[in-house]
Every structure is written in C-alpha cells, then in structure tokens.
Fold this sequence. Notes:
The protein is α/β, with parallel strands linked by helices.
Amino acid sequence: MNKLTTCSLKERKAADLVIVPFFEEKSKAVAAIKAQELATLLSFPVNEGDFSGKEKEVLVYYPASGKEKRVLLLGLGQQTKCSAEVVRTCYAMALKAAGLKSVRHINVCLPDAASVEISSAAVEGMLLASYRFDGFKSKKDDKKIESLCFCGALEKALLKKVETIIGAVAMTQDLVNGNADDVNAVAFIKLAKDLAKKHPSIKLNILDKKALEKEKMGLILAVGQAAAIDPAVVVFEYRGNPSSKEMVAIVGKGVTFDTGGLNLKVSGSGIETMKCDMAGAAAVVGIIRACAELKLKVNVVGALGIAENAMGPLSYKPGDVFYSRDGKSVEITNTDAEGRLVLADTISYVEAHYPCRCVIDLATLTGGVVIALGESAAGLFSSDDKLAAALEASAARTHERVWRLPLYQDYREMMKSPIADLKNSSNKRHASAPTGAVFIQEFVKTSSWAHLDIAGVAYLSELRPYYPTAATGYGVRLLIDFLEHFS
Ligand code: BES
Ligand code: ZN
Ligand code: ZN
C-alpha cells in the first residue's frame, strides 16, 4: 500500500471502489453510515434481499452513477456483536475481495460514530490483509492496490500510528517468512545496525562468539556450535523515558533453523516449518522499531538470542553437560529443547547488564503449546499476577490472544538431573510447555517475569483473512499495546 489518507464522506475524491459497511438487523441489511446518496444507490440489493449484512458478507455492485464505479457492500453482522475483532476480520475480507478486481484506489467508509478501537481495527484489518510475501514467486501479483482513503471518524494521527505498527509487523513477517539461510545471525546484526543508524533513540550492543565466550554463555554456545554461522546476542536499548532508569526487558528466541540436533526431530514434527524458530527474535526487532518510530515514552531493552541448531560432527551431544552464564550445570537430555538454553543465557546477560523492571520473553518454544491451544493463543506463564493481567488486557485489545498456564513445583521436579543442576527436558512428553517454562524461570532473577510460548501463533498452517501468509508477526501488536499502557 503506497498511500493512506483520511477525508470526510462528502469531500472524498473519485476512486475505483467504495466500501460501505452494513449491520444486520432482523435479517435485513442496514447501512452503518448515513449517506443519502449511497443509500438510494444501494437500495436494490438490500431491498431484494441479495445482501443481508451478515458478518463477512461481501457484495460488489456496479451502480450507474456516483463517485465510484464499484460499490462493495460489507456486512459487519449484528451491531451489538460488532467487536473490534469482527471489524478487523470483515475489513480484511473487503480488501481481499477488492483486490480481485482491477482496483487501484479505494474509498473506505468507516461506520458512523466508530470508536477509536473500531476505526483502528478497520485500518489494521485492511493493512494486515494487504501484506504480501511474493519474493520467491517468478510471477508477481500485478493487481496492486495503491491507495486507501478512510472516510469518517478517524484522526490522521491515529491512522499514522496504526500504519507504523503494521509496518513493524510486516518487517517481522518478512524475517519469519524469509529463508533460514538468509535470515541468520549476520542478517540480524546488519538489520540491527541499520535500525540504530536510523534512530538515535536506539543503542546497540552486539555480542559475537568471542564475547559470548568471554561472558561464559555456555548454553547458547552449545546450541550454536555445529552451525556455519556463529551464534550471537543482539541487545537494543531504546530510551524513551529519561526520567526513569528502569527498563522493560523483552527477549526473543532467535533459532534461525531448528533441525532438532542429534536427538533428531521425529517425522511429522514439522522440520520444514523450522525457519520460523526465530519468530520471537523477529518480533523483538519489530517492537523496537515501532517504539522508536512511535517515540513511546518507555525504556526498553530488547535482546535477541541467535543461534542455529544444526546437525553435524560438531553438534552438542545428548547426555553431555554444559554450563550456563550464571554457573548452573545443565544435562542435555534432548538437543531439540534448545530454545530454553538460548533464552536462559540471554536473559541472564540482560539482567546482569540492565536494570530490569520486568522481563518478558517470546519464544516458539514447544510443540506442546500447539497441542494445547492450537494456533489461537500463545501460552502465557508468569511469576507476577499484575504483569499477567496487563498482558491479558493487551491481548484482549489486540486479539493477539494469550492463555495463562501454570508454573507448578511439580514441573520443576521433572527437570531435576541426577548428574547436573538440572536437565533441559524431562524424559516424558507430559507438560512440555510448562516444563519448558519452569526451565527458563530457573535463570530469571527479576521478580516480574512472563514467558510467551508462541509456537502455535507465530507461523500458521491455515491462513486467515488478515493473515495472508504463514508468518503473523505475533507479539508486535501485543507488546506495543502493553508498552503504551505501561507505567
Ligand atoms: N522449535 C521447537 C518448538 C516448535 C514446535 C516451534 C512447533 C514451532 C512449531 C522447539 O525447539 C522444540 O523442538 N521443542 C521440543 C521440546 C521437547 C524436546 C522437550 C518439542 O516441543 O517437542
Ligand atoms: Zn527444538
Ligand atoms: Zn526450537
């Protein structure tokens, strides 16, 4: 999308198509906008009952007159049930339907007296739905929508804000959709440097292999020791609130490819989707970029733990013991439980070097969370009820859903090792998401911590109206909302 503007319904310019929202009232469509000119134009399909305004219903109509040659009637369903998520989905469907026509400029009517939440959701739905990743296709999509003009209750500043956030989501999606061999530690470092160059509010601290060794970060080094590209930790410091020293720490799992290592991924466990295993790190980059562009008044330290879990003669071996940055010994019972190792050392480094008010980590950590929650919610684990509640509130607003799961002592017992301080995986398949979470918790010193297991939500097997590719950019919208409300 090249150009986004706002205007009043009356003053709107000519376009190729106009989107007109409807509610459904007693099985009959009722326009959600009061525009006499359009209402009379559209009376035919409505009165004939061809269009009843039910949720996600779309009808393209070619009127004989008017500012636009095409009118897209969009059903939003019953007004009382019309949540932000319904609006996000319906406007995404409208964009998709419009994209099938030879349409370049679209006027988009928002429902009359729409709240900030509803208008932003409409914009979000359309921008998310217009995301493309066709870099690998020799035949590119030539039908490109060039501009959207939003007519109705929408401040320019709000439009700009949503555009910025969805731009950051798209960057995260590009990273996750990209080839594992392209989006490696070297690429993350280059991207981080470019971001820091562009935004003076971002400072960078990059730890290469040598620096990881100096810091004695034995766990992330073990995971990365067989790969052609060395592991690294990238730390962004974003300072938007000079009156405070405290920072919100956001740490992402950046396993650029997860072969499972020598314990081998069992067949059917989806090795062909494992380029997505850096989705947590990719979200952190998106979050930092959005913070800088929106000039959020918070201090954030964003850290990426980057390693490739490769298989080869140099791979770390099952049964061996490695030492974490904070000196704990870990018996490797499964080389496929590598994300927690990367996170343990990265979180420990961040806590030692930055004053953390709270620590939030994002990781495609376990297949278990996908079994439990599917692709509908991230698993949320937290040592702090207030932090968990704040994340749940952001999840409700953004529809990047979370579902809280427990951190029982029982799970800690399952991670005890006879030969080391702990092991990296229990030998059972029981509770793999919670046992992964308690492993990470062993390395966290900050009292306020949350872990988001995003294995199900970061990379979809079934596409959605506003997620047209596998990568969703999960976490960017959620945590920007969280940071906006953070005090
Ligand atoms: N990267 C995987 C988890 C994953 C699964 C991400 C599906 C995205 C989609 C992770 O490193 C992994 O392999 N976890 C193991 C842990 C187990 C060995 C304790 C799992 O879930 O099977
Ligand atoms: Zn793994
Ligand atoms: Zn993994």
